[in-house]
Structure formats: C-alpha cells, structure tokens
Amino acid sequence: MRPYFDTCAPRPSHAFARAEVAAKPLADVPARRGSVDAVLATRHAGTQRLRLHYELTGPEGAPLAVIAGGISAHRHLLANAVDPAPGWSQALLTQGRALDPRRWRLLAFDYIGADGALDAPIDTADQADALALLLDALAIERLDVMVGYSYGALVGLQLAVRHPQRLRRLLAVSGAHRPHPYAAAWRALQRKVVALGQLQCAEDIGLSLARQLAMLSYRTPEEFAQRFDAPPRLVNGRVQVAAEEYLDTVGVRFLSRMSVTAWWRLSESIDLHSVDPTQIRLPVSVIAVEGDRLVPLADAVALQEGLGCHGRLRVLRSEYGHDAFLKDVVRMDALLASELAAPLPGVR
Amino acid sequence: MRPYFDTCAPRPSHAFARAEVAAKPLADVPARRGSVDAVLATRHAGTQRLRLHYELTGPEGAPLAVIAGGISAHRHLLANAVDPAPGWSQALLTQGRALDPRRWRLLAFDYIGADGALDAPIDTADQADALALLLDALAIERLDVMVGYSYGALVGLQLAVRHPQRLRRLLAVSGAHRPHPYAAAWRALQRKVVALGQLQCAEDIGLSLARQLAMLSYRTPEEFAQRFDAPPRLVNGRVQVAAEEYLDTVGVRFLSRMSVTAWWRLSESIDLHSVDPTQIRLPVSVIAVEGDRLVPLADAVALQEGLGCHGRLRVLRSEYGHDAFLKDVVRMDALLASELAAPLPGVR
C-alpha cells in the first residue's frame, strides 16, 4: 500500500485556541488575571519551582467558587473584562446558570504541567497542593465550593483530602477516586500512539490520533450511532468510515491547545490518581453520567459509598457520556442548581 | 522526553503462530487439507484469481458444518491427522462439545486476503462468494450448518443472502448485519495507527498497537477491573499501568499471525459489511453477548427483528464481551448445543 500519511504537516501554534466569534464579555463585572511563583514539593518529581496562573471573575463579596475542567482546560473560563475571548466553560457560566458570574466570584487556574515545561510525573495531589498555594497567595482562606469536572473532580477530591480546611463543599462531576483499569489501559495506548509518532517528525499525527482515541472514551456508541450512521466511502482505494472526518477535525484542533509533553504528563497524572474517600469529611456531591465510558457509574457509586454520610450521588442520563458537562449543558446545569440548593450532605 | 520506542525490533515470521504444546490429534478421524484455484468477481476490486485454502476434518457421512472465526482465524480448526498443531478453535471442538469432531465433518477455510496478497478493498460478500466457489470445487451441495463467530458471522449472513441454497441453517455468533458506527470509528483509528507506523520502519509497532486497541473492543471493563486492579508503576520516569504488559504481549504475539496488508484489508471489510436481514429466508440463530462492545446487543436485536420468523435470539452474559466465544467456551458451547437441538426457527 502507499503510505497513508504523505507528509508531516506543520503544527499549529501551542497558544490556546480561541474561538473566532467573541462571546459577550462581562465588562461591568470585575476580573483579574495573574500569576504567582511557588515552590511545590511534588509527589514523584521532587521540589519544583512553578509559576501558577489564575483568573478571577465576579463581584467582590460574592461567594467564591473554583471551577476546574478536563486536562485541556485552563484559567480562562469565560469572556470577561481582562479577556473578551470565550472561555472553555463559556456555556456553563452564562447569566441565569447555577454559577451565574454576576452572583459568584469564579476562580480558575492553569494545571501545573499544562505549559509543557514540567517533563516529570505529575500527580493530582500535586495539582491540589498547587491550588492550595495559589489560595495562600491570593489570601483566600476558604472556597465556598469547588466544581470539578472530569480531571477537575480528581483535583477537587485531592483538595478535600489534603486541604479540607480550604473547601466548604465539593461538586465532583464525572470523576472518581480512582482511574478505572480499563480507562487506564485506554490512556496508556494513547500515550504509546504518541510515542510512535515521536519516532520521527510525526509527533503531531500521534497526538492527533491519541486525541481521537480519547474522544471515543469521552462520547458514547449511542451518539455515534445517531451522528454517523452512513455507509463508508472508498477514498484512494481505502475505506473511510462516516466518523473519520469528524475525528480528524477533533484531532487536528487539539494540536493548537496542548503540547505533547503537557498532554503526556497530564494523561499520566490521571493514572496516578488515587484518593481514599473514607478520609473525606466535607460535603461532596458526586455527579455521574450513566453511560460514561471513562468513569463508569459503578465507580461513582463506590466513591459515594466511601464518602458515607458526607457524599450524595446524582446521576444524569446523557447520550454524551463523559462529555455531558460540555455537551448537555442545560440539563447538567439544572442538576448543579438543584444540588447547590439542597441541604449539604453530612451537615445537620 | 526521550523516545519511548528505542528501536524497530525485527518482526516475527508471518507464518501462522503455532502453540508449542501439541493437542491430541484425531489420528483415527479422516482429515484433508487442500487448495483450489478460483476466479472471483469481487465487489470493489474487479475480477481476481485467487487460491482458496481449506481443511476438512471428520468422518465421512457425518453432518457437515462450516466453522468460521474472527479475521485472524484460518482453516486449521484443530489438531488432526494432517496437522497435529492445535487449531484456533481447538477448545471449541473437543470431544463431547456441541460440534464434536467425531460426530461432525468440519470444514474451514482461509479468508481471502488473509495471505496479504490482495491489496484492495475486500467485502464480506466476496468472502461468501469465495466460500460458495470452494463448495463447488469440493462438490458440496449444501452445508448442514454454518457456525460463524465474529467476522465469520458476517460471512455467514452474506452466504445466507447470496447463496441460500448452499446452507440449511446459520448460527451467527457475535456478529450482526452492519458494523456499529462507533466500532467502525474504533477500527478506522486502528488503521490510522498502523499508517502512522508505516511512516518509518515502525510498521510492526503500529500493527501491535492496533491489535492492543482492538483488544479493548474485544473485552470488557469488568474483566479489566478484575485482572488489572493494581496501582501504576513508574518505569524510566514514565507511568506504566497494570494492563500494559499484558497488552504489549498481545500486540507482539499478533505480529506472527498476520501481515499489515492482510489485517488492513480484513479490518476494512468489516466496515464494508452490510446485509439486509429481511432478505434471509433460512433459519438463523443470532447468538449475542451482553456487554459486547464491538457488536452491541441492540444490533443483535435489530438483526433478529429483521429476520422475523427466520431468526431466534439467544443472549449470553459474559464478562469477556466480544471474545466470549474464545474465552467462555463451556458456557458458549452449552448455548450452541441447546440451539442445535432446538427446532429450527421459521420451520414448522
């Protein structure tokens, strides 16, 4: 056969991709962006000098929430006074949502390792410690809530174990106390695909393919069956199935968002994640999605069981699986709103 | 980071791998092996001159069954008088099983494309046509049963549509009338991983990784949770999860079984597969496994619905998912036995 990939295309810039259409910035709401230097004793990589990057949006005096997303999320949550570009959680944080940016102060940060400068094993515990250092620097004693989605939920659970005094309550969405062994194997193979690409100039193709493989774990067969129920085509004597063009686009788009080193170390850090939920003594809402192929419902149930009276489990049914928090925004928001309004689990 | 793969290891021979420990050959049961030349009008690749390879085991006069397995299966089903090496379906065909080789004549064949010589799109319809030509050459008018597992089920369904007079009944195990769009996407990404490997001398690494990715679709999270529930290790500054060693072994072992071209074209042929079950007028037992991630139960149900009175659905629960026919042999055999003993669906 002829080679499938003819060339190594030049890679897009590593700068965070920005949507072309600007969202409506909250010009009347205070916002600031900054960085603080910190020295972090990491779990597997010794002591590291790191620069922690954050953004804080919302009126003074409002309750304070930390919002943390997936491994490719970052400090820019939404269009605001310091940056009019849409943020990664733009749709989750519009007016009227459970986390309305006019009623909450919203703090977000870049994950350590996300800049690609730290090429060593990173742990979710390190992320939580870094967050605690950031809170020190910002003189924030205690968060009213942390809402962690996916990787952010893992970091939130670590914060709850390691720095419980910094956190009033946690909403852990689509994340559990451990990586599921099957999901860990899936990620390990993604890393090997990237390593295969690194054998020569095809690092970008490897990372793009890894992202495409990850997408299969973020979504569900039900969604694919609806979107891609078309016969395959023959292109240059090869079979191309209906989902391939979409997956290609997803893969290439990812290249502008993250370097290989950042992705590798953050991917690993999910597999290093481990929390004993029985050590957590603050209220945790475990929000799971039925059909999540990355974090099976059974692991969310086990997490809630470990939390005992400190935990409450809410389950969303969504054909989007793990990505429901990004794709099923309205229904997820209704669930968050009802959870934030309900009495805290474990508190009388 | 240092390169993960340090070198391109020399690849094992393409000859079919043989287990070292010989099974007990059926010395007293007739067996023969042969090849016939055929001219096949293929669906996507014009007219092809092909050599069809078969093996026939079992007593003269016994009922005749064709056994067809996954894409890496072949004509050697079991240790017999012409070849004492264990076959791919050795465990399914021992004495006392539903398809006891002393009570059945068992015919098996190499899939077209399996020798890697045909580098063009292959269709499951072509496989069925090739089988019909083989039956012509062997002067076999009609099979008493075809038992198709996985890919073999797709070929069996095509035979039922295209050559119904050659087949009395079909047992279609873990295969449906169409590839599921999510499974098709999974296979397409495997092919891209192989293509990435082909960019340099790493074709074997690519094929090994593709096989490892495929394994995730052949098995289930439940099995992985039981087998690989161990913390990750740090090896050379990188994270290695519990399933990685096993998957590596699986991938490397595959290299001795199939060439890249054969694997690519057979993988594609699953995605080209399409059968209208309402055209089938002979008895079909659809045997599905709950939890099969490659052929979801919903597709087996749809197949049975399309077959109407000609189809009957049996469901096995197995933590092995798609690979239940290879791994949950005793329970699968009990199901086959009861199905073979039951009155034919659609026949009064």
TrEMBL record, chains A, B:
Signal peptide (residue range): none
An individual GO BP term: methionine biosynthetic process
Active site, per annotation: S150, D292, H322
Keywords: Transferase
Molecular functions per Gene Ontology: homoserine O-acetyltransferase activity
Pfam families per the UniProt record, alphabetical: Abhydrolase_1
Superkingdom of the source species: Bacteria
Gene3D superfamilies: alpha/beta hydrolase
InterPro entries in alphabetical order: AB_hydrolase_1, AB_hydrolase_fold, HAT_MetX-like
AB hydrolase-1 domain boundaries: 95-327
Coiled-coil segments on the chain, per record: none
Protein name: Homoserine O-acetyltransferase
